[in-house]
Target: NAD(+)/NADH kinase
Amino acid sequence: MNPRKVVIRFREKGGSAAEWGYKAAKKLESKGIAAVVESSAVGRGQSAACDADLVVVVGGDGTLLRLIDLCGGSPPPVLGFAAESLGYLLPHSVETLEVVLEKAMAGECEVRRVRLGEYSSQAITGYFLNEVGLWAPRGKLIEFTMYVGGFFYKARSDGVIVSTSAGSTAHALSYGASIIVNFDEPILEAVFPGALSPLVKPLIAYNKSMEILLSQNSETAHLIVDGRYVADLPPGSEVKVSPSQKNLELVTVESYAVDLARKLYLRLIDMGRWQGSLNVSR
Model:
């Protein structure tokens, strides 16, 4: 790799991520590469990340999710380091930061591609990495019809989560989603938290859109994308979710990357909540 400009984004809330971010900048500058360090709280109009040749992410998956939104689904390639977090999509432990940077800048790296999703509802459009959620107000239900290449379900539930393959191991997993490991495929998975009918099961679609039409009798639904509130949708609203042609490119030094199967195991047993380091055996 020969990036001329690198932006390092670190998790905003405490911990050692900021310290590691400045270490990364020092390492890059010693090689004559311009480096900018910024918190993940730096938003549109202020961040330099979207115009960089490479973004180094230090923190957890939330730091990565904010980058997708910040850059409108077209972020630069990302070199990710998990710091005091499991960081399922961040392949390297932060303790290996200096050696991984050295090898990546020398071109000893590969690129993993993660397929994004896209959504639209009236004038609202955007991209997502993990999931789009429609949620009823507290104590209420939404009523909707789901279409996947035609009519599929009509149901009432607490909400609907439509995830990408990568998102199948995130919020959707806690509601019974199947784990999909082909991150580069145009796959969507829908789960229906609190569905009143036992016949309403999770569904998976390959290279197809999912359309959710709120009935006229439904409660207003909160549209939540990658954990971020987007809008309230009134009865009669329609949301279309599709696999995107866009991919997130994750720069990976395979000899120092934590195996995804190992990370998934840690996620399933919830070790990521208290394990401060990813220096784990394979």
